[in-house]
């Protein structure tokens, strides 16, 4: 049903209205979910920017295993837990190695493809990558 004066009604074609929207991702959702009784979300976020939880746990694991290997462990349960912790650490290191190997293979494939098809882009990439690959850090 049309109003009598429909020709005065605003006409909205596609993309003619307000199409502005925020597209930046909200990355604070994880820290905002921290229960206030468990910690301060702002402090947790800042601490995470210094070292991720995985890095923090990795450091603790390295020290704990080192200390435990030099200690006289009397309990069979503690000895079994230490062995389990070592297996977990080894599995995580294996995951890291596999991921880095896969990434290196992907990069190698992409560079080879760019060499065949990219022309000048390959030359520009080579100029950027060669100094990085020669860096002995």
Task: Report what the structure shows.
With 137 residues, the chain is mainly alpha-helical. The chain is 65% helix and 0% strand. It contains 5 helices and no strands. α3 packs across α4 (76-117). The longest helix has 42 residues, at 76-117. The mean pLDDT is 84.
User: How would a crystallographer describe the biggest sheet?
Assistant: none
Structure annotation, total helices: 5
Cα-atom Rg, whole angstroms?
28 Å
Q: Encode the helix/strand succession as letters.
A: HHHHH
Alpha-carbon distance between the two ends: 74 Å
Low-confidence stretches: none
Helix content: 55-70%
The average pLDDT score comes to: 84
Oligomerization state: single chain
Protein topology:
Blueprint lengths: L28 H4 L8 H10 L2 H18 L5 H42 L2 H15 L3
Helix pairs in contact: 3-4
Could you list some keywords that capture this structure?
137 residues, 5 helices
A few lines on this structure:
The protein contains 5 helices and no strands.
